[in-house]
Every structure is written in C-alpha cells, then in structure tokens.
Amino acid sequence: MATAWQHSGGYKVGNESLKVFGNHFPYVWIFHTKSRTIQQMMASVSAALATTNQFNQLKELVETMMAFEKLRFPEFQACATVLRWEFDESYTGVGDKMAEQFEYGCGYGGKLGFQNAETKCLAINPHTDRQVLRLNFCTANGLVYPHRDANGKLKWAIRVRHPAAERLLSKEGFKADESLWLQPDILDNQLNLVRRRNPSL
Questions:
Q1: Given 2, 32, 102, 134, which residue has the most CB atoms within 10 angstroms?
Q2: Can you tell which superkingdom this protein's organism belongs to (predicted)?
C-alpha cells in the first residue's frame, strides 16, 4: 500500500509508483486529489438539490461547509448562489449573505446558460470585482450539467461513458430511452465552457 510520512519539514514518499511526485506528493494529494473529489461531490449534490427545488437544503449545505476551514471553497458558495438565482423563482439574493458575497462577474451565469441568474446578479451586484470564477468548479469539470429542458422543466445530467453506462443498465435489466441521452452538441458546448474557454469574460 502506498504510504507517505513526514520527514524533517517535508514528506518522503514510500512507494516507487509515487516517487514521480517527489516531495510534492502532499501538495498533489491535498490540493488536487482531495479537492477534486470534494468538488465533484458538491457540484453533483448542489445540482440535484437545485433542480429538485430543495433550496433551503442547498443553503444549509453551503453554510455548513463554509463553517469548516478545510471545506471552505468560496467558488462553491458562488456556484450555489448562481444555482439559487437561476432555479429558485422567489430568490433574488437581496439581504442574503451568499448573494452579497458574490464577487464574480454576473456574466458567468449567462455563460452557463442561466439567464435568470445573470439578470438577478446584475440587479444586486452591478459592480462586482469580476474575479475569475472557475466554471469547472461549478460543473465538476464538465461532469455535471444542471439545466432546463425544452419545456422549462428543471433537469440535471451527469456525464458518463455511453457504452459503459448501457452495459451496467443492461446487466440490471434496464434500457435507457434515447431521449435520456443529451445531444453531442450540448455536451461539446459544456466541455468547451470549462476546458477551452478564455479565463476572462
């Protein structure tokens, strides 16, 4: 089993397969592996809560996470605020700390296809500092896609390998209707937003 131990102010890696990281292994583990796992989990949970009208639970989740220093991701709070602006028709953000602390450009809502969020953001924060908000954080690097369908119904999708997903469903005796798969152009657009866009709006 791979191990790492502290050694005179640094870390020594105790497995040949990990030596490629050298003494940077703790940084890679803490700031990449662990944070990426949390990022994917929270983006998925947030999208699920927002698209099933569980906005109070979403707010409570954010407040709980922000109370713990090691789980305090300002980007996560910002992304959750965008979701509330977009999907909660009654939420304007006026008088709400989450919205008042939104320090990013309102155009990020529009970039994600969230026109409601962009409009509400501009109404409360017309002069934001326009810091860079990583869209890959809001979408778990393109794995999560909260949206509305053609009828305006709240939906969220997750990115999977099509053949692998079909094999798993088939094994359990299920078959996914073709309407459940998003069109390739939608997927390509989402990946373009988080992977190939210019970081500044």
A1: 102
A2: Eukaryota
The CA-atom distances, in angstroms, between 78 and each of 104, 133, 140, 160, 172 are: 8, 8, 14, 26, 38
CA distances from 22 to 3, 10, 173 (A): 13, 10, 47
* Alpha-carbon gap, residue 200 to 131, rounded angstroms: 9
Point out which residues pair with 5 in neighbouring strands.
12
Q: Which residues of 72-105 are buried (b: 16+ CB within 10 A; e: fewer)?
A: ebebbbbbbbbbbbbbbeebebeeeebbeebebb
Structure tokens at 179: 């309407």
- List the chain domain ranges: 4-195
CA 174/CA 82 separation, integer angstroms = 35
Beta bridge partners of 156: 146
Nearest to 106 by CA among 86, 126, 88: 126
Match 């030596």 to its residue by tokens: 19
Q: Give the residue carrying structure tokens 């709006």.
A: 201
